[in-house]
């Protein structure tokens, strides 16, 4: 998309980021021991910890990803909200307290509390590392998306910026800082989302979108003259080319030297509908809707084509209550912009064409995860697999578990968790309104769904936009920091100190942790650039699937089955990681990334948990039976 | 404030809490699985209008979120009760011993 730099936004942004950095350096000066680097010394108040929990959890995936996916795929985005929250039930009811009784610093310590096995140390630290990296990818992608409109920087620059700031925070301060940063950010995120939701409801719905006085581009509709299934003329435009992609027909027209693509909607109305295009020419120049970038002809989209209230068609609703808002969208008709790619001579064209979707369909699962009448076995399995991963993944994320150790007692850990559930649950209900609000108010950037919430805020003015962007940026910062602490802990504490038995002293342990943090940070930056353009919730779904497969069977068996042995745990972690990674790396999305075409992938399953989780469960059972623990443990 | 140290927590309280946790987990699991089941096998049902003009999918989805919070509060209430009870009995026994 084409973005202007807003200096008000910039000022707010730097103040906020400066505040976050200042806080972390302030707390950084006070800590010294390795226990305070990894787990804030067990001294954090439960309420602070609870909101920090929420801050940790409400990562880019929640704020950017869920809102974005709801805006373009309706209810399917909300599936992530439902699953992300349900995961806390597993964490609270099955794992929170027993873990607090078992563990010390890291997930590996807790798993290994009974066994002291080198195999567990090694496998658990590897799984921590892999899950953290998969969770880092979407954060970095989100960071890149965020700075594009804010600073007018390209995606890669945003990724590097976030990486550098986080490495600075983690390497200088560690966990004490990130808890307060997460607290601040979690609190702000909830408050600001509430403000945004109130605005959306107050503004109501209108067609064309008249959101806070912003004008919406009027998409052209031309009546063509057709001969032998070919467009021969279209009002005062001349016809250049016609192309069929799947069951859609696209027509290239020209007027005043500008070439535009239209979609031929052959139905009853038989119209040519204006699309948005990005054309990559052979000489490397890029055209937006047939014109150079500076002409600003690439529009924000997403609108209702019909608003129906009580069976009556209206052009404007006025302020709406929350239920009215949802039911009005359900009864109305929404226009989404879908992407196809085509080649025209030596030009590569991305076409975003308008597709009318009944609100009743938009408010049901099925636009992304096909489970309705257009479903097949793969798509249904994919849906179940996603829901399974989200449910089981939360409790097994290493950077979430680490917060159980930052309060004194199990009672406090429990209260923190419940506060977190309430805060996160409330926030997720708000994402429904923010996502839908972005989808129907003409603010969407067709190139990336991740910017739905910040762009919606921008329609209200620079102030709200800048604060929300800064909070979202801090969200990414905080989450990335937490993840890097978890993975540097896995490397420095679990692998080097415990597995390699280097017996580092406190100072050295912190130093090694910091070096590990820098290495992981740089790696995350590179991956963030590679995955640009993919919805961040979708990417996070993978991290959940790996966590659910690699860690959760091991944790559950350890806590609830006395015969679980160390070889059972280690083997199940290995099987969980390998099977989930194998399915992800051969999935349609990855095949598309490799340039082999999604339809040629080895299978059509995007989410691996449905297969990898049961495999890991069987493994822990079999290995524990075949290689039982020794009698003296 | 009473100190609720892990080492001092009685085995019976741990067991009570763990049992409660498992039970509540299964209650939620059934509700969650019900949603997934509807999605896969009874998709048309999700489209039916339930409350305030909302369809079943939305009502169920929002319901699952609210239900999780309610179960969390119930869990905390009973866990705290178990812990307090155990502490009371302990204090009583200590008193008698003196």
From TrEMBL, chain A:
Q: Which PANTHER family match?
A: CATION_ACETATE SYMPORTER ACTP, SODIUM/PROLINE SYMPORTER-RELATED
Q: Which PROSITE patterns match?
A: NA_SOLUT_SYMP_3
User: What GO cellular component entries does it have?
Assistant: plasma membrane
Q: How does it sit in the membrane?
A: Multi-pass membrane protein
Keyword GTP-binding assigned to the entry: answer is: no
Q: What CDD domains does UniProt report for this protein, alphabetically? A: SLC5sbd_u4
Q: Which family does it belong to?
A: Belongs to the sodium:solute symporter (SSF) (TC 2.A.21) family.
The GO terms this record gives for MF are: acetate transmembrane transporter activity; symporter activity
- Which keywords appear in this protein's UniProt record, sorted alphabetically? Cell membrane, Membrane, Symport, Transmembrane, Transmembrane helix, Transport
Q: Which species does the entry assign this protein to?
A: Sphingobacterium yanglingense
What protein am I looking at? Cation/acetate symporter
What GO biological process term is on the record, naming one?
plasma membrane acetate transport
- Cytoplasm listed as a keyword: no
**Which residues are listed as membrane-spanning?**
6-27, 48-72, 78-99, 119-137, 157-176, 183-201, 383-406, 418-440, 460-491, 512-534, 540-561, 568-589, 609-627
Database matches in Pfam families: SSF
Q: Where in the cell is it found?
A: Cell membrane
From TrEMBL, chain B:
TM segment ranges: 20-41, 53-78
What UniProt keywords apply to this chain's record, in alphabetical order? Membrane, Transmembrane, Transmembrane helix
UniProt-listed InterPro entries: DUF485
Top-rank taxon, per record: Bacteria
- One of the Pfam families matching this protein, by short name: DUF485
Protein name, UniProt field? Uncharacterized protein DUF485
């Amino acid at each position: 998309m084409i973005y202007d730099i807003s200096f008000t936004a910039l000022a707010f942004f730097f103040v906020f980021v400066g505040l976050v950095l200042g806080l972390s350096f302030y707390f950084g000066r006070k800590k010294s021991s390795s226990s305070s680097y990894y787990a804030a010394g067990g001294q954090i108040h439960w309420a602070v910890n609870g909101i920090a929990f929420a801050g940790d959890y409400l990562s880019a995936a929640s704020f950017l990803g869920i809102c974005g996916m709801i805006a373009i795929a309706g209810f399917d985005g909300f599936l992530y909200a439902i699953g992300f929250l349900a995961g806390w039930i597993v964490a609270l009811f099955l794992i929170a307290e027993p873990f607090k009784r078992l563990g010390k610093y890291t997930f590996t310590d807790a798993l290994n509390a009974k066994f002291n096995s080198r195999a567990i140390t090694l496998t658990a630290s590897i799984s921590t590392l892999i899950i953290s990296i998969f969770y880092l990818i979407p954060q970095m992608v989100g960071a890149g998306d965020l700075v594009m409109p804010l600073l007018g920087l390209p995606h890669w620059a945003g990724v590097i910026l976030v990486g550098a700031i986080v490495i600075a925070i983690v390497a200088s301060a560690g966990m004490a800082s990130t808890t307060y940063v997460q607290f601040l950010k979690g609190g702000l995120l909830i408050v600001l989302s509430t403000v945004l939701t109130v605005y959306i409801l107050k503004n109501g719905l209108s067609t064309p979108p008249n959101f806070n006085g912003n004008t919406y581009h009027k998409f052209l509709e031309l009546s063509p003259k057709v001969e032998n299934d070919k467009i021969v003329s279209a009002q005062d435009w001349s016809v250049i080319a016609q192309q069929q992609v799947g069951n859609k027909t696209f027509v290239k027209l020209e007027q005043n030297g500008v070439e535009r693509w239209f979609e031929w909607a052959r139905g009853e109305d038989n119209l040519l509908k204006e699309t948005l295009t990005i054309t990559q020419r052979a000489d490397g120049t890029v055209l937006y809707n047939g014109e150079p970038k500076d002409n600003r002809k690439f529009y924000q989209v997403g609108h209702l084509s019909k608003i129906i209230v009580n069976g009556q068609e209206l052009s404007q609703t006025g302020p709406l209550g929350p239920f009215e808002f949802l039911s009005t969208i359900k009864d109305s008709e929404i226009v989404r912009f879908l992407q196809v790619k085509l080649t025209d001579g030596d030009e590569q064209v991305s076409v975003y064409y308008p597709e009318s979707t009944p609100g009743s369909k938009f408010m049901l699962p099925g636009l992304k995860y096909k489970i309705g009448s257009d479903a097949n076995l793969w798509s249904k399995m994919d849906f179940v697999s996603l829901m399974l991963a989200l449910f089981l993944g939360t409790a097994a994320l290493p950077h979430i578990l680490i917060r159980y150790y930052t309060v004194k007692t199990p009672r406090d850990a429990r209260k923190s968790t419940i506060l977190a559930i309430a805060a996160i649950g409330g926030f997720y209900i708000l994402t429904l309104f923010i996502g839908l609000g972005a989808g129907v108010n003409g603010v969407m950037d067709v190139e990336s769904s991740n910017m739905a919430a910040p762009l919606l805020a921008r329609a209200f003015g620079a102030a709200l936009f800048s604060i929300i962007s800064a909070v979202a940026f801090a969200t990414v910062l905080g989450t990335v920091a937490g993840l890097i602490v978890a993975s540097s802990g896995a490397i420095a504490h679990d692998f080097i100190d415990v597995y390699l038995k280097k017996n580092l002293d406190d100072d050295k342990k912190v130093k090694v942790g910091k070096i590990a943090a820098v290495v992981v940070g740089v790696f995350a930056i590179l991956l963030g650039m590679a995955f640009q353009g993919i919805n961040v919730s979708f990417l996070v779904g993978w991290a959940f699937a790996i966590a659910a497969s690699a860690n959760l069977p091991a944790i559950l068996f350890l806590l609830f089955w006395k015969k679980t042995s160390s070889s059972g745990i280690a083997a199940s972690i290995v099987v969980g990681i390998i099977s989930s990674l194998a399915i992800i790396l051969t999935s349609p999305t990855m095949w598309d990334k490799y340039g082999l075409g999604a339809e040629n992938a080895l299978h059509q399953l995007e989410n691996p948990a449905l297969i990898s989780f049961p495999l890991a469960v069987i493994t822990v059972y079999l290995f524990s039976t075949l290689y039982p623990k020794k009698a003296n443990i | 404030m009473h100190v609720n140290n892990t080492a001092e927590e009685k085995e019976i309280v741990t067991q009570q809490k763990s049992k409660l946790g498992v039970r509540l987990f299964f209650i939620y699991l059934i509700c969650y699985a019900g949603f997934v089941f509807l999605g896969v096998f009874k998709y048309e049902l999700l489209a039916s209008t339930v409350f305030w003009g909302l369809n079943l999918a939305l009502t169920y989805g929002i319901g699952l979120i609210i239900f999780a919070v309610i179960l969390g509060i119930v869990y905390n209430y009973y866990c705290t009760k178990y812990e307090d009870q155990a502490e009371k009995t302990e204090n009583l026994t200590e008193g008698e011993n003196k």
